[in-house]
Design a protein that fits this description.
The complex is a heterodimer of chains A (255) and B (205). Chain A is 56% helix and 13% strand. Chain A is of the alpha/beta class. The chains are: A alpha/beta (255), B mainly alpha (205).
Chain lengths: 255, 205
């Protein structure tokens, strides 16, 4: 038996998701935002785009790391964003002599990394250039994953690293190990504690929801840009709701 | 060309799990529980695939004679532990000993290294990213650390330990963290919906 209050909350929650989805679908018809014109400049992602063009021209390697999120947990969302970005980055570097590599810290993410690599090569009609070793599970515990990803970036001489996924404080070891004179590390995660660590340790940290914007800035798909606009819309709605709630509480309307 | 069947299956499963979350009716919750159990079994299988993948990478390194010793140690320890866990069960004394005597000390050692790495990163921060935010970040970190530990001969610092640190943690830090988490939650919903709508297909071909 569902209680009335939980039933109302379920309907409100579902309505929120449906409205979010509808806006994401409708907004592309109205406006498709473009980086530099409609999206505010994000230094980290601008540098990532620049590194991508340099990687293709100079024949250097890109390394994408997806963290240790479990696929049954909401914290994997940032790794899924990393996979979308990885698809775009691998497509762009498929022709390169030094193709991009993807590292992961769990079995499912390792499988998804390989799948993304394969489909990105297929999209560029370079299936023959795909090697399973480009997608690797580097360790199955937090520190073994960090050590393995760090070594993978070093061994393969990665010039640019993009870390997007679920990380803990061990991400500082990764960014430190990947650091070099001409390397760039752009890193984002959904963990608040790891974001604080990244602020100090990464070349270019992605703070807050910026990690979810990477797809839009890398043109990873048609809905990435509009989902950013939708997030902004709901963010303002939440801000208004919080401010409204505060005023109502201050006036003594609510107990 | 991505398989429409895989996309349809992913969308249908996502929708059922979502409905089961919002509407706890027996038909939805039963299906949701079943699908999540399948996902857990698949994740377990994927863990084994991950082990094979890790071994393939290190085997290739051994064959190419790159970091021969390191890769051989990784391979041997991985598969010996796996075999031992299969033979003696994960709760056995041998596996517990392996965990307590090797994995925990190694992790603690790396944790110690992490403290130095973070301290070094903090020292480099003003040079790497000069500005008011770096100064604010560093000074807050120093104040919170000073307020968290008793100094030799001085004990807990007055005001910093009992007033400033709790205020920093409970007011500006908590407010900032909640703001960040709200943004992350919206980003998570957007990512989930992109997968549910078939726009993002991390399951590849």
């Amino acid at each position: 038996m569902i209680s009335l209050s939980s039933g109302i909350l379920s309907i409100v929650g579902m309505a929120f998701v449906v409205l979010f989805g509808l806006l994401m679908l409708v907004l592309p018809v109205v406006k498709q935002p473009r980086p530099g014109r409609d999206l505010r400049p994000l230094r980290a992602l601008s540098r990532l785009r620049h590194a991508l063009s340099l990687t293709v021209e100079a024949g250097t390697r890109f390394h994408i790391s997806l963290g240790r999120g479990e696929i049954t947990h909401p914290r994997t969302a940032s790794a899924f964003v990393g996979l979308s970005a990885a698809h775009r980055l691998v497509e762009a570097t498929a022709v390169s002599d030094r193709p991009a590599i993807i590292t992961a810290g769990t079995g499912p993410l390792g499988i998804l990394a390989r799948s993304t690599l394969r489909s990105a090569y297929a999209a560029e009609a370079y299936e023959s250039r795909y090697r399973p070793a480009y997608g690797r599970v580097t360790g199955l515990t937090p520190f073994s994953y960090a050590a393995g990803a760090m070594l993978a970036a070093r061994d393969d001489d990665a010039a640019a690293n993009f870390l997007s996924g679920s990380f803990g404080a061990e991400v500082a070891l990764m960014t430190d190990g990947m650091a070099g004179e001409n390397t760039l590390t752009v890193a984002g995660t959904d963990s608040v504690a790891a974001q604080a660590v990244l602020y100090a340790a990464a070349d270019e940290p992605l703070i807050g929801e910026e990690v979810f914007a990477s797809g839009a800035y890398l043109n990873a798909g048609p809905l990435h840009g509009t989902s950013l606009l939708t997030q902004d819309f709901f963010r303002w709605l939440l801000i208004l709701a919080i401010l409204g709630g505060t005023v109502v509480k201050m006036l003594g309307v609510l107990p | 060309m991505k398989s429409p069947l895989a996309t349809a299956a992913a969308m249908a499963v996502g929708l059922v799990v979502l409905l089961g979350y919002f509407f706890p009716l027996p038909v939805f919750t039963g299906l949701r529980t079943l699908l999540l159990q399948w996902a857990l079994i698949l994740a377990g299988t994927a863990l084994f695939v991950g082990m094979v993948n890790l071994s393939q990478y290190h085997w290739a390194k051994i064959r190419a004679r790159r970091n021969l010793v390191g890769s051989a140690v990784v391979m041997a320890s991985l598969w010996l532990t796996f075999a031992l866990a299969l033979y003696a069960s994960p709760e056995s004394a041998a596996i517990q000993w392996l965990f307590n005597a090797i994995i925990i000390p190694t992790s603690v050692a790396l944790l110690g290294l992490l403290a130095f790495t973070l301290a070094y990163a903090a020292v480099r921060l003003p040079r790497r990213r000069p500005g008011i935010m770096a100064v604010l970040f560093l000074s807050t970190a120093v104040l919170v650390m000073l307020g968290a530990v008793a100094l030799p001969g001085m004990g807990m610092l007055p005001f910093i330990g009992d007033t400033l640190r709790p205020w920093l943690a409970q007011v500006p830090a908590a407010a900032g963290a909640r703001g960040i988490l709200l943004g992350v939650a919206l980003g998570t919903v957007a990512t989930g919906l992109r997968i549910l709508l078939g726009s993002d297909r991390p399951y590849g071909e």
